[in-house]
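re: ur question from yesterday

yeah so i grabbed the chain u mentioned. its 617 aa long if i counted rite. heres the sequnce exactly as i have it in my notes:
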Amino acid sequence: MGMAAAALFFSMACSASESEAPSAPAPAAPAVASQAQAYQPASPAQPAAAAPAAAAAAAENPAIAAIAKTSPVTKQFVAGSGVSRPDSKYGTLVWATKRMGEGALGFSPFLGAVSDHYGVKEPLFWHRYGPVPERPGVSDELSIANGWELSSDGATLTVDIRPDVDFHHGWGKVTAEDVAWSFNDSLREGNLNPRSGFWGAYIGKVSVVDSDTVQFHAPEGKTISPRWSVELSNTWRGTQSIHSKKAFDELGEEGSRDEFTGTGPFKTLEWTTDEGFVGEALPTHYRETANVERFKVVVIPETAALVAAFMTGEIHTSVIPNAHIKEAVKVADGSMLRLGEPRAGFFFFGGNFWQKTHAGETIFPREGLKADDDHPWIGDPDDPARMESARKVRLAMAMSIDAQLLSDEVEAGLNPPSLTYTGMDKGHRLFKPEYDIPYDPQMGKALLKEAGYPTFDVKFWINPTDPIYESALAATEMIRAGLGLNVELETTGYSARRPSLIGRTISVPFLHARSIGDDTEPKGRLLSAEKGGANRGMEIPNEILDQTWYAGLASSSVAETEAANIILQDFLSKWTLQAPLTARVSYAAVSPEVIQWRPYMDTFGSQSSPESVILKR
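ran it thru and got these structure tokens back, copy pasting raw so excuse formatting
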């Protein structure tokens, strides 16, 4: 395991009294006069109160409410009309990130181009601005799409394209042909696009109606998902971006990949996956003209270096792990800002591929289904005894993790425990007591003996850039210490491990998450053989998918979707297919040099809306 994990685990057990009283927040930077509400400092004695919009969102999802209650955010940045602006653009804004993300380098839809949060590659739809976690709805004034209509049967979505959107670097105006090509190119057989598997589940093709109108067509027998306005928009973890068909025709696939045909407020000057991005603000922009002259994103994978860069003023903002952000903000005399929607973090028990067929084809058994003595957590759906023994092994590992301790100590009280895949945690009206796995390593040991595996070797894959990496590291030490297992860590980056997810060859427990979302969202796609790169290393049986994911897609009411999600959570809890850790709630450390910033809501808690930032002169 190494000394780091052991030190972290034992320091958690010994230093609770030292961390009970969080440091008082640093004074807020001066606010800019505005008709809109700029950020305001919270009282040092208590966390900032939730904004009314956030309270409304919380009412729909108590899991979000619990997070809002315990989040000591020291500044609130709120959108609105009449935001004050400097007389002219000023300065270079510098952000830091641990990785650029999937599709960051690429302007070819087929090869992986997706929208970003850096103001370069934009989606078709843009939501109005509001305080996180509000998602106010798509705006025809802010979107490339300036009108849309869903057919009464849900089979087609007709979208009008605004005529005044420019591609960067002189590639002309965005047309309906560019929009249709961008989506269709992402759906081509063999594509590397990391997001087309999501919206491709309900969009089969896009056709051109005329020069400024396109139609989205659902595959035969399906309808356009009611989630389209989220999943095709800026508020969803990067989605399809719009690129120039002309650039593709003239430069070819490889050439157009590196031709930065974005549509956002910043045009690209430099962009490399390992080093970062440099952009220049456009003189004007149809949606929002940037307030800074230039924008840089630097890649700093190591947490210690990231924290040091913020404390010394080398960067203006970055998402910093919760274990370090309070001290970093205190030293820099900065502030904290909550970003985006929370995600539920787990160890997923990779290799449990139980789905037999998909789209009329037999897919069982997957390569990752290694139901043998070296992988005692993997069950075989054709062997009831093996299914039961593997269930006990998974439950034992889950019971050896004290998620509340991880929340209180490693995550500094900023991330609550994650109990359910569906967001039906404590406080939710649909929560059931059986969803809560008790912390009981002694009972876990007994379960391992009953299963016939009192000890074994187990490897955990933990992405080192994951926001709750420290909690996952401590959790593996809890498993080692509590159950006496021989635990090995694999700290491979996500992009290197992703092929094992796409190919369904993964057979180890691993750290990942899912967006909590809301009760109107059908859940289960990530636990199926649906196309697309994102999945959670397992596939649940066809009969359960029919009652959950597919039933939710076909539902005509929130009640029907909720019923499908309850069935899913009942199944996941019965078989303990995830070991709860903590939520991933992203917080940005903000430099006192930033006097105004209005990020928008997104499902991954990303830094966003750099064009809205105003720096001190």
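noticed a couple things. Residues 57 and 134 are 6 Å apart (CA to CA). also Residues 92-300+591-615 form a domain with the D-Maltodextrin-Binding Protein; domain 2 fold (CATH 3.40.190.10).
anyway ttyl
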